[in-house]
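Let us work through a complete example step by step.
Step 1: write down the sequence.
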Amino acid sequence: MTTQAATSPIHWQRIAKRIRVPLGFAFAVVFLLLATPAWHSLAWSLLLVLPGLLLRGYASGYVKKNQELTTTGPYAWTRNPLYLGSMLIAFGFALGARSVLLAALLALLFAIIYVPVIRGEESFLRAQFPGFDHYAARVPRLVPWRAPLRSAAERGRFAPALYRKHREYNASMGVAALYLALILRLSFQHGR
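Step 2: predict the structure and record it as tokens.
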């Protein structure tokens, strides 16, 4: 493999897609080592973490991966509600950890991992679904900043079966485990 092929955007998109979950677990360990939580910061973190969890859960009940271009529910507001939810959760935990360094590392992680993954997914969707370009022109990539697709927002319903199929409940379990670890760390800090 040539150096140019090894560093191509498409090559990195594939690598980023494969390593994003394991890297997230590795980052959780670093997170716990660098976190300096306080009771008030954990309470404030809920303002981002809970909406992030709700958004991820809500979006998972609409998306039919690789079967159709999902434009209903939260997908009428943003093309990537699952990633937006993940970002809210992650930055909520950075707030809970009271760490600017963790927030900066998270921003870097999202930039080098999720930006290429999103672009790769958009290339796939563009090739699979002829209406993707029209959808992409009307719906923001990540942060909802304009009115939703009116017709798309009115169609579709949340499907609990899709939520279960995508195992989105794992996000809630991960959040609960991370809060438990932070609370234990905080309890041991006060017990010294």
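Step 3: interpret the result. The CA atoms of residues 52 and 86 lie 6 Å apart.
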